[in-house]
Design a protein that fits this description.
By secondary structure, the protein is an alpha/beta fold. About 40% of the residues lie in helices and about 15% in strands. The chain has 3 domains: about 5-85 and about 285-310, NadA-like (Rossmann fold); about 85-195, Rossmann fold (3-Layer(aba) Sandwich); about 205-275, NadA-like (Rossmann fold), CATH 3.40.50.10800. It has helices at about 5-15, 30, 40-50, 60-70, 90-105, 120-130, 140-150, 160-170, 205-215, 225-230, 240-245, 260-265, 290-300, 315-330; strands at about 20-25, 35-40, 55-60, 75, 110-115, 135, 155-160, 175, 190, 220, 235, 255-260, 275. Strand 1 (about 20-25), helix 2 and strand 2 form a beta-alpha-beta unit. Helix 4 crosses helix 14 (about 315-330) and helix 6 packs across helix 14 (about 315-330). The radius of gyration is 20 Å and the shape is globular. The structure holds 1,3-dihydroxyacetonephosphate and iron/sulfur cluster. Iron/sulfur cluster binds near residues 86, 119, 224, 283 and 285.
């Protein structure tokens, strides 16, 4: 007999002291099961404030890790331990090499302030915390970088080169990418060469196509898009900020949105919101989680045999927590 996953998930949520959490990029059927939704910053804040001892986190690995780090007493399970492709681009060794690159170019280690985008492994956050640095998300990067600049240090921004460059541009700062041949001493923000392959799909041709087809259309994109795309757009913001921007438009206003497909598809179903790409911009790892996976994670709690639990060792957790809390303290 086949299992009615929706009914079973509802039953288990009622029975167990558990909160199901879902990022906006999750498949609709999974997203609809979530008690807490939000962008990366909201998810970290809301999960920390939530009282249930169990969390079933539908998203990618760094998000589940962040909850475990800011709320270590919680048991965090991920229906699929899917890893964000950008987060995989940097580990502790590459982080050390990036610091080394700056040092070998005449910048003393004490004069470097590392900032890591939340889309990074907990081991990278930990190294950033140990060096006095902090975490940012796409919704608070401006404030975090502004705060970081108060130290008078050079900012090492990892792993997303696009986010680093986009915020440098919006703040009138000079940025470079490690490996692009420039002298890091000449820049305020030195970016690691990581990127999101999903957000690289949006092109200037896509923008031109929509602007030609609908001359009054607005273009709204996530700041993980290439700087040329952000510059050519009318608005850039985190997933929550994009939702807010689109929801506040007049209902007849056309808008093309450059971010993950599941989210854009869910926005304003009145035919005036378009996906800014001829290719379906799906995040493969966000899409891995299915209703069956959510059910199995919840069932494992009921059966007292938890699966896919996120565990972080004490040292890593301590410093990653410091880096995350430095961010959460900035309102
Ligand atoms: P948000 O923090 O804007 O939700 O972004 C997370 C993400 O992975 C975007 O690709
Ligand atoms: Fe990572 Fe990109 Fe997927 Fe966001 S959309 S989770 S940055 S791979």
């Amino acid at each position: 007999m086949s299992i009615d996953y929706v009914a079973e998930i509802k039953r288990l949520k009622e029975k167990l002291p558990v909160t199901v959490v879902g990022h906006f990029y999750q498949r609709d059927e999974v997203f609809n099961m979530a008690d807490i939704t939000g962008d990366s910053l909201e998810l970290a804040r809301k999960c920390k404030a939530d009282e249930n001892p169990w969390v079933v986190f539908c998203g990618v690995g760094f998000m589940g890790q962040s909850v475990k780090v800011v709320a270590p007493h919680k048991r965090v399970l991920m229906p699929k331990v899917a890893c964000c492709a950008m987060a995989r681009m940097i580990d502790g060794r590459f982080f050390d090499e990036s610091v080394e690159f700056m040092v070998s170019n005449g910048i003393a280690k004490e004069d470097i302030l590392p900032i890591t985008y939340i889309n990074s492994d907990v081991s990278v956050k930990s190294k950033v915390g140990e060096m006095g640095g902090l975490v940012c998300t796409s919704s608070n990067a401006f404030k975090i970088i502004e705060k970081g600049l108060e130290s008078g240090k050079k900012i090492l921004f990892v792993p997303d080169r696009c986010l680093g460059q986009n915020f440098a541009n919006s703040m009138g700062l000079k940025s470079c990418i490690i490996g692009d041949g420039s002298d890091p001493k000449e820049s305020d923000i030195i970016c690691y060469d990581g990127f999101c392959s999903v957000h690289q799909l949006f092109t200037l041709d896509d923008i031109e196509f929509y602007r030609e087809k609908y001359p009054d259309i607005l273009i709204a994109v996530h700041p993980e898009c290439d700087p040329a795309i952000v510059k050519a757009s009318d608005f850039s913001g985190s997933t929550s900020q994009l939702i807010k921007y689109v929801s506040e438009l007049d209902e007849n206003q056309k808008v093309a949105v450059g971010t993950e497909y599941n989210l854009v598809n869910r926005m304003r179903p009145n035919g005036n919101t378009f996906v800014l790409s001829s290719t379906k911009p799906e995040c493969p790892t966000m899409n891995e989680t299915t209703l069956e996976d959510v059910y199995l994670a919840l069932k494992s709690i009921e059966d007292n045999k938890p699966i896919n639990e996120i565990l972080v060792d004490e040292h890593t957790s301590k410093w990653a927590n410091i880096a995350l809390e430095r961010m959460l303290d900035i309102k």
